[in-house]
Amino acid sequence: MELFSLFVRSVFIDNMIFAYFLGMCSYLAVSKNVKTSFGLGVAVCFVLAVTVPVNYLIDKYFLQAGALSWLSSHFQNIDLSFLTLIIFIAVIAGIVQLLEMAIEHFSLALYQALGIFLPLIAVNCAILGGSLFMQEHHFPTLFHSFVYALGSGVGWLLAIVAFAALRERLRYSNIPKPLQGNGIAYIITGLMGLGFMALMGF
Amino acid sequence: MKFSNRYIFLYISVLVIIVAGTLAIVSLVLRPRQEANRKGETAARILKAAGYGALSTEQAVALFDSVASPITDSQTERYAIVCSDGDTGQVVYVSGKGLWGPIWGYVVLASDNNTIKGVAFSHKSETPGLGAKITEESFADSFSGKKIYNADGEYVSVVLAAKGNSEANAENSVDAISGATITSKGVEKMLYEGLKDAGK
Amino acid sequence: MKKFLEPLSKNNPIIVQTLGVCSALAVTAQLKPAVVMAAAVTVVCAFSNLIISLIRNTIPPRIRIVVQLVVVSFFVILVDQFLQAYLYETSKMLSVFVGLIITNCIIMGRLEAFALSHKPLPSFLDGLFNGLGYGLVLVAVGVVREVLGQGTLWGYPVLSDKFYTLGYMNNGLMVLPPMALILVGSLIWIKNARQS
User: Which of A24, A189, B94, C145 could form a disulfide with B194 if both were Cys (CB 3.0 to 4.6 A apart)?
Assistant: First the structure.
């Protein structure tokens, strides 16, 4: 039950795009049509679901204050949390690289579908954001962090696909000239965000 | 220009060592200040609830050490504190669950172990504009002067009643936050559980 | 010099290039965090541009992204540590968004497009002005949201009580995150309308 509510919450209420604007750059750049958006969305889900749990373990066993005490009691006072950012981003960049190689090796079809998006993802704020929010939430178990990551990824996927669908329709609407393109894209995202806020409840 | 693998490896190693070394030094130098900030924030909030007014973190840390002392035989975090009016009360740490995540706070009880001097609540992720209002001053102020025992001497804690209903039992209730029922219930439960032992 | 000033308006990173929106808009509900965030991004952008430009001839092309990430994270961590030590309140409001400066597309974009191929001083200025251009939008959005949403500016009340007695109310909508996007959209609209 707790896990389910965590999942729902991370998909809808803490939606990466509508509540925190994470990953906006690729969101605006790639949302021209539904099919590519879906590809990018799946890739984001995938990378989040892998990197967040890995970073969870690293945070728990290396970075937090006193985290090294499992090695030896001498290390109890070591606090490496100032290295968090650099380690997280290095892990993400590394895993994305590995994933790209693995996918290319095992499934050419999948590589053709996701491959072009993977390099984009290493510097996507949603991915680093996922790991940083995971650290803020202090999840009790590894599985919690996985559920959270998956939920956030699904939320991101949902947002970009919905937005791309709207954008496809937008081509036929009569928008004031200065507002066309990015202007209207921002405003639509804002309005969708307001809609999502209604799910917050009281 | 061509770069050998060895060069690349050396390059990245040197870079990482320089970066990690510098950061370690900076972090060591700044850590005492950061910890003082963290401690000072809590101290300032407790002191405000005890009637000392708004203080900067430095003032708060210094003052807190002189007026408050931890009560060691308690299960939870508690302090004995001399309030601004000279009365010796106690600070009780309370914690519970809101709508979305943990809520917690400090309650300052007067020496009669009954009257609330002030409270300071915090939350992790309540809805902005609704549940998040528990951190606001107007909400905290509504608690001062309330009692945790009713006229018959029974323990009732403080109830968060819907607006308008709180007058019926003014001593033991405050206005709930409209629109934030679950958060209000959470605060009520947190106070009931947290002050149960403290009031004796 | 004129070229360096371009990011302030004509080629503004947020409004025209739509870069770096990610970590920015969630912090503009009030002016103070917006200003601190703008300053942090400007510092990181200027100095990482400078450093990358200084070592640009020694970086092996194959690992240049990693080197850039390391340099940027280095400055971000520095900024984060300083904020925690000297501006604790604001750093708490900014929470994870300071860390997310690392993945701010403006910074990576400037490193790739400018610092890797230019001398240190121009790179430094390029980073500085791109950071300022970004900050300008942040501050503008921050001012509008704080004044309309809470009736304060930098935490001080700016609307007289008379307004409120006449029935004026703070617009709670402005405090919600999606309004930042709608405001930026409107800014783009105004800017495009003026140019054409």
Answer: B94
Q: How many residues does chain A have?
A: 202
Report how far residue A5's alpha carbon sits from residue B99's, in angstroms, rounded to the nearest whole number. 11
Cβ C74–B19 below 8 Å, yes or no? Answer: yes
Q: Taking Cα atoms as reference points, which of C99, C93, B41, C40 lies closest to residue A81?
A: C99
Chain A to chain C Cβ contacts (< 8 Å): 136
Pairing of strands B102-109, B88-97: antiparallel
> What average pLDDT does the structure give for chain C?
85
Q: Residues in chain B, how many? A: 200
The answer to whether B119 and B111 are in contact (CB under 8 A) is no
Among candidate residues C188, C158, C148, C146, the one with its CA nearest the CA of residue C16: C188
Between chains, do B127 and A201 touch, taking CB under 8 Å as contact? yes
How far is Cα C67 from Cα B15, in angstroms, rounded to an integer? 8
Q: What is the pLDDT of residues C117-133, one digit of tens each?
A: 899 999 999 999 999 98
Tokens of B161: 């009643």
Q: Nearest-CA residue of chain C relative to B21?
A: C74
- The domains of chain C are located at 18-195
Report ipTM (2 d.p.): 0.82
Which helix (H) or strand (E) element contains residue B15? helix B5-49
Q: CA–CA distance from A29 to each of A40, A151, C21, C188 (Å)? A: 11, 23, 12, 16
C19, two tokens: 């870069």
Q: pLDDT, tens digit, for every residue of C80-120?
A: 999 988 888 788 778 778 888 888 888 888 888 888 889 99
Determine which helix (DSSP H) or strand (DSSP E) holds B62, and give its type and residue range: helix B57-67
Residue with more model confidence, A163 or B98: A163
Q: Is the pTM of this model over 0.80?
A: yes
* Minimal C-alpha gap between A23 and chain B (Å): 22
The residue among C124, C135, C120 whose CA lies nearest residue C47 is C124
Q: Which residues of A touch B180 (CB under 8 A)?
A: 202
Answer yes or no: do C78 and B30 touch at CB < 8 A. Answer: no
Q: Token digits for A21?
A: 């604007």
Q: Are B150 and B156 in contact (CB under 8 A)?
A: yes
Q: How many helices (H) and strands (E) does chain A have?
A: 9, 0
Residue A16 C-beta-side C-alpha neighbours within 13 Å: 37
The minimal CB distance from C85 to the residues B8, B16, B30 is found for B30
Contacts of B96 (CB under 8 A, 6+ apart): B102, B103, B104, B186, B187, B189, B190, B193, B194
